[in-house]
Amino acid sequence: MSEQSTAPEQGAPSAQGAPSEPGAATSGTGIADRYREAMIPVFGTPQRVLVRGEGVHVWDDEGRQYLDLLGGIAVNALGHGHPALVSAITKQAETLAHVSNVFASAPQVELAEKLLRLADAPDGSGVFFANSGAEANEAAFKIARRTGRPRIIALENAFHGRTLGALALTHKEAYRAPFAPLPGGVEWLPAGDVEALRTALAPGDVAAVFAEPIQGEAGVRPLGADYLRALRELTREAGTLLVLDEIQTGIGRTGRWFAHQGVPGVVPDVMTLAKGLGGGFPIGAAIAFGPEVRGLLTAGQHGTTFGGNPLGAATALAVLGTIEEEGLLEHVRATGEALVRGIDALEDPRILGVRGEGLLRGVMLAEPLAPQVLQAALEAGFIINAPEPTTLRLAPPLIITAEELGTFVAALPALLDRAAQLAGAEEGN
Ligand SMILES: *Cc1c(COP(=O)(O)O)cnc(C)c1O
């Protein structure tokens, strides 16, 4: 097969030419067209083709620069090309990249110890390493099954991933329905409803409750301290595991190592991590708190080829080390608050407020224009995200400065103007 013959040359001008209609992916390299040809189209049309990143900026294949306020969806904790990350990856790749789990390696053990320390996990706790968030939740799901109890509770609007077990926990019907039958026993409760939780747990047959301290994909919706406390107290009374999915909220994203640490007394039985943990390198983790929970999985009951390999573990250690050395937890709290103050100070009636914590924020819009604001932002050189029509999500690299965030805040009123224009043009079509 001569793939090359139909593919435009690297660097050839875009077939559509620039500037194009707003929202369409343009591409100076022809990669966007080849993407359409070569990929299974589960992600829809990519917004841009990116070629390079440095710090909090990325560049597309037409040479345009963007301030990255999404960080690969809460992944690029240290931004792009951070020297500590590059050096850790390079050194570890030169030394030992992968050994399989037939062997142990120092980075893997050091990372496990470090995560247990940062999570204030009690003696006898343990870590399982995976390669993604969904896989971390699969491990948690299997731990839950091992309790022998039949029911599992998740929350309405929850997102826990796309593999079949993680999908079974995910609330959105449209994601689940095409893949029935999924692992059974899962039911959903409205987040925040303590009485519903009490009733559901009362029979004593619930293996686990899965919850995200802040529901990221649902539009950055915090569960709130009171509900988190109720979750902890009621699951403890019922002998039910509390599984906190901190895949999006963990690793400093909220200005604490893990979001639940903002609510004293709330310690999970299992915590899942991924996204920011590798700063762009794929790695996930499920942490079992205490010997009893850890003992639910025994030799041979779970596994992975790549999970916890020295390359991924060394990279994650560099992420955690850099967050410590650069004082990023405090920085995230301060910049997150500055962002909220800045948006509040706009006193723009088209903005209802800001949800979230640290540098995981949802800007609530009065009108369902988030997709159009996203397009306007791209035109203006900002990468943001629209998890739902009335919410803009910001999850920038943790190293972003208040000044850099300020450029977005200053641009926001004009982006809302432009979004209304784009919506009007769509209606006119
Ligand atoms: C992203 C995410 C997942 C899934 O992680 P993948 O790495 O995409 O499998 C699960 N839970 C939450 C809360 C997430 O934000």
Short note summarizing the structure:
With 429 residues, this protein is α/β, with parallel strands linked by helices. It has helices at 3-6, 31-38, 71-74, 83-95, 106-118, 133-145, 164-169, 173-176, 194-201, 225-238, 290-294, 310-325, 328-346, 370-380, 402-428, and strands at residues 50-54, 57-60, 65-68, 126-130, 151-155, 186-189, 206-211, 214-215, 221-222, 241-245, 270-273, 284-288, 351-357, 360-365, 382-383, 385-388, 391-394. The chain folds into two domains: 31-69 and 328-428, Aspartate Aminotransferase, domain 1 (Alpha-Beta Complex); 84-325, Aspartate Aminotransferase, domain 2 (3-Layer(aba) Sandwich), CATH 3.40.640.10.
Explain the overall architecture.
This is Acetylornithine aminotransferase. Pfam families: Aminotran_3. Belongs to the class-III pyridoxal-phosphate-dependent aminotransferase family. ArgD subfamily. Keywords: Amino-acid biosynthesis, Aminotransferase, Arginine biosynthesis, Cytoplasm, Pyridoxal phosphate, Transferase. It is found in: Cytoplasm. The chain has about 425 residues and is α/β, with parallel strands linked by helices. The chain folds into 2 domains: about 140 residues, Aspartate Aminotransferase, domain 1, CATH 3.90.1150.10; about 240 residues, 3-Layer(aba) Sandwich (Aspartate Aminotransferase, domain 2), CATH 3.40.640.10. It is about 40% helix and about 15% strand. The chain contains 15 helices and 17 strands. The strands form 4 sheets. It has a 7-stranded mixed β-sheet, sandwiched between helices. Strands 1-2-3-15 form a 4-stranded mixed β-sheet. A 4-stranded antiparallel β-sheet has the order 13-14-17-16, covered by helices on one side. A hairpin with a 2-residue loop joins strand 16 and strand 17. Helix 4 packs antiparallel against helix 12, helix 5 packs across helix 12 and helix 13 crosses helix 15. It is globular and about 55 Å long. The N terminus is likely disordered. The site of pyridoxal-5'-phosphate has 15 residues, from helix 6.
